[in-house]
Amino acid sequence: MVRLVALGRWAGDRGLSRGGNAGAASWSRADRTLIGMNIDHPWRRRRPADAGLGTPLPISPGTRLTAEGAPGCEFFVIQAGHVAVRRSGVEVAVLGPGDSFGEIVMLDPRARRTATVVAADDLRVKVFDRREFSTLLDRDPAFAERIRRLATERLLAA
């Protein structure tokens, strides 16, 4: 089984957690991770690229999120849990927290889904519609470049 390229850890809710030294704020590793881009300092002066965007959704095991060959209009980032990626009924990858899928149909509205994605266990995803996805690309050019590379790699593997 081939593991698809991960975008990196999704930063989740990005809430501050208080550290043990005199009430100083500390950030977890996830808090220092911008969509697909690990940064080694807290987000003190930057607003997260996904702030105010996307809808978090809980998904039950066995739920089909995408169907191969179908049109699509959502981009998904896995926050917790795993999904099975299938092409022509054969499992080709398992994606987990920090991984994403759905970028191909978001970059080209005429494109069709290249795989069927099914929740393998209890799943929590953040779902972005076309407008939100476009805003993400505009806010973070490095993220936009990584998404384009990821889409190219996945199309070549299909």
Low-confidence stretches: 1-46
Q: Helical content, roughly?
A: 10-25%
Q: State the strand order across the main sheet.
A: 5-12-7-10
Total E-strand runs: 12
| pLDDT averaged over residues | 76
Distance between termini?
A: 14 Å
- Classify the secondary structure makeup into a structural class: alpha+beta
Radius of gyration: 16 Å
Query: What's the shape?
Result: globular
| SSE topology string | EEEEEEEEEEHEEHH
How would you characterize the overall build of this protein?
This protein is globular. The longest helix has 17 residues. It has a 4-stranded antiparallel sheet with strand order 5-12-7-10. The protein has a domain of 103 residues: Jelly Rolls, CATH 2.60.120. The chain contains 3 helices and 12 strands, in the order E-E-E-E-E-E-E-E-E-E-H-E-E-H-H. Helix 2 packs across helix 3. The two termini are 14 Å apart. The N terminus is likely disordered. By secondary structure, it is α+β, with helices and mostly antiparallel strands. A hairpin with a 2-residue loop joins strand 8 and strand 9.
Architecture blueprint of SSEs:
Elements: E1 17-18, E2 25-26, E3 33-34, E4 37-38, E5 55-59, E6 64-66, E7 75-80, E8 83-87, E9 90-95, E10 100-101, H1 103-107, E11 116-119, E12 123-128, H2 130-139, H3 141-157
Antiparallel strand pairs: 1-2, 3-4, 5-12, 6-11, 7-10, 7-12, 8-9, 8-11
Helix pairs in contact: 2-3
